[in-house]
Model the fold of this input.
Amino acid sequence: MIPLNWFLALSAVLFVLGVVAFFVKRDLITMFLAVEVMLNAANLAFLTFAKKQGLLAGQVIVFFVITVAAAEAAIGLAIILLVFRRRKTIRAEGADEMKG
Amino acid sequence: MAEMARLFWLIPLIPAASFLILLVFGRKLPKTWISLQACLSVLASFVLSLASFGELLKTAPSSLPLVKTLFSWISAGRFSADLSFHFDPLTAVMTLVVTGVGFLIHAYSVGYMARDRSYARYFALLNLFTFAMLLLVMASNMVLLFVGWEGVGLCSYLLISFWFEKPAAAAAGQKAFLVNRIGDAGFLMGLLFLFLFVGSTEFRAIDQAALGGGLSQGAATLVCLLLFIGACGKSAQIPLYVWLPDAMEGPTPVSALIHAATMVTAGVYMVSRMHSLYSLSPAALQVVAVVGAVTAVYAATMALVQNDIKRVLAYSTISQLGFMFIGCGVGAYAAGMFHLTTHAFFKSLLFLAAGSVLHALSGEQDLRKMGGLRRYLPWTYSTFLIGAMAIAGVPFLSGFFSKDAILSRAFAAGQTLVWAAGLLAAVLTAFYMFRLVLLTFHGRERLETEAKKHLHESPPVMTLPLALLALFSLAAGALGLPAVLGPHLDRFFRFLAPVFPVAQEGPVSPGTEWALILASVAAALAGIGAALLFYGREPKIPAWLVHRFPRLYKALLNKYYVDEFYGLVIVNPLLRGSEAVYRHFDLKIIDGGVNGAGRLATLAGKALNSLQTGRLKDYALGLLAGLVLILGALLL
Done:
């Protein structure tokens, strides 16, 4: 049996990869995927702890996260589509019209 | 009639209702409707007053006053005040004067104000004034009286500055209001002390406390003097008289109603109403008598040289009010009220007749541009002459008897100096009144050509009130004849006996009384004779006197420089002080604080503004930093 700490390590690696990808990549779709990676890293961590503690709550939260991720995908993709229509590009830099 | 008399509490409410209607619908109503409603409401009050007066004659003195409590108005701890009206002989006299003279002046105003733009506003205010004045005289406690007191002050302000486009009128209104505030401050303090000492402001309770010995002499003196400050403000006595001459900027019927017949007598009424308290304090009475006597002479001297027809009458009013206070001060309250009544007739007559002259001359008020008007304005002339004779004290006219009643009571009370001052004021009064008559109606015409073109006698709606008032001025003296003419001819005084016990008025032997009457006659004739000599036969004398005493003449013409003195000593320092406070405290500390708070918020906003870059990655970085911080904190 694989030790549970390895799952946590994998989760940490996935999360860091997501963060790095979010900051390094320029187009919105890839950044969006990076966010999904981070969410799934979090899911993995939740599941690991659920297993470790023998509690169901962690598994339930994962379902919530998956639901949120689905909703986020719907809204996020719609936003990206609109950004593309407006700017003819999905690059993130230069999109700072919301500056205060 | 008896049923009607129970409704005496409606007397003030009828003009109030009329005021409300005019206030709301005044702009839309036709002029005829406005005139009819305003006049008829006052007439209704007058009829009701007459009915109540008739009822009063039949009521036994022991059941006086009639009181009608509408509801409990204020109730706070020990303090309580009802909205309640009362009716006794003193109130009856005042309501009859206010509604009777008031009705005639309302009617006169229909003609006088016919072409004014703000017709409805004028009559609304006139009705409001009538309501407030009736409230003042019918209130059964000092608190409600104070409401009426302030109400008439407000109306006075609004009507003096009725033509508010004119800067002088607006300034005069403000002056009247501010000077009255000084008096009212004293009045309010008197009211508070009165409540402190008596525990109630109901007149019956005050009378009981005063007569029952529940009040020390010092307490009574304090309260009386403070209240008298209020009376000085409202009734234009030294040192608070300065507003009344300026108040002549208002429409002339307003001067007649408010600044001659009714409102300015409120102080006299108040002192008479509190007579049981004043009688406790000889010191306060002495102050009242002296202030009255000094004012009577002082104001009369200023009236001698004024060139504005209305201002002469204004100073004359101040002087006559001084007479009334002499009456109160020597304990002859009934005589003071008698003079108040006759004065209401002849002074409103004089003002209305003067208004008729202004009407005829397209608003000219300067005596130097009149003269010889008796040919053109026969009605105005004859009524004005009757008024002048009455106020001058020509025998058998009303003013003669009322003035003589005051002077003889003053003499009987041993106040010889006060009596002498009153006699001197009577001489001056006769002189300046006949100067006014001669300069206005006799002699050479000094009219401006423009004014002469429109010269016309006033319409009947104006001359009829004049005629009626002239009739009263002639005959009202018969109400209170001196004792030497017959034993039961002093009806006015006997009517007031339930309020003012007759014993207060000291007895004089018939011989002395005849001598006093002769002195009064001599005073009147001397004044009139001098005026005839100066302005009829030998017009060189006034010019010579002016040449001979230039300083005195200038001082009189400039009203003894009192306005300038007040300006220098009170108004200017106050203005300067206020300006200093404004510059240093308001602008720097208060405004600085407020602006500083705003500026702080702006600066904070600007500083935080730079955080909102609009770039997605910056925000993400912020989130990450937050995460790292929280995690770090948890781990450490």
